[in-house]
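Reviewers of the previous submission asked for a worked example of the structure-prediction workflow described in the proposal, so we include one complete record here. The input consisted solely of the amino acid sequence. No template or homolog information was supplied to the procedure at any stage.
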Amino acid sequence: MLKQFGRMKRTRNWLIVAFALFMGLSLILFYAPSRNTTATAATSTEV
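From that input alone, the workflow returned the following structure tokens.
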């Protein structure tokens, strides 16, 4: 499989860019909801 990607440099570059974008978007989307819950828990005075 790596030899095939060595021949297709343009495809390999697009796969790397697409994977990086996917990972970045998934980090943003999955981190955003938990950020709000931890912020409210940290400022809450309820015991």
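The radius of gyration is 20 Å. We consider this example representative of the routine output the project will generate in years two and three.
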